[in-house]
Amino acid sequence: MKGKLYGNGLWESSRMMLPEHKEAILRSNRSQERKERSVLDEQELERISRVLTASLRTEKPVRLRLFGEWQGREVLGTVTRVDPGRGRARLQTEAGPEWIAFADIVGAEAD
Fold it and tell me: Fewest CB within 10 angstroms: 26, 85, 88, 111, which?
């Protein structure tokens, strides 16, 4: 019994973890994986704007890279409408129409 009280022995002998502790550890790990939103420079914003405008006029598809807190995603579709007042664009995808916020777009390419 004397050996358990020296160094880290007391904690090493106790292997039980409460559910609250496990949840706190998982929350901490998830918060470390969360991504920060990057700020785009003026040139990149202008290039994204031109790609969206070209898709709206020519009805050709674009590939948009979107920000996500945990994982980004790509969307392929044709711009059918732009709503500058609300800061969004409507994309016609294979799954159907989808509104995309301008703030979520981190990259755009003509497909």
Answer: 85
Those residues whose C-beta lies under 8 Å from the C-beta of residue 4, and which sit 6 or more positions away, are 10, 12, 13
Nearest to 105 by CA among 89, 94, 83, 92: 89
Residues 6+ apart with CB under 8 A from 95: none
CB–CB of 91/100 below 8 Å?
A: yes
Task: State the pairing for strand pair 73-83/62-66.
Answer: antiparallel
- Total residue count of the chain as it appears in this document: 111
Question: What is the rounded CA–CA span in Å between residue 70 and residue 44?
Answer: 23
Rounded CA gap, 94 and 88, in Å? 19
Q: What is the pLDDT along the chain (111 residues), one digit of tens a residue?
A: 555 556 666 555 556 778 888 888 888 777 776 777 888 899 999 999 999 999 999 999 999 999 988 788 999 999 999 999 999 999 999 999 999 999 999 999 998
pTM of this prediction? 0.68
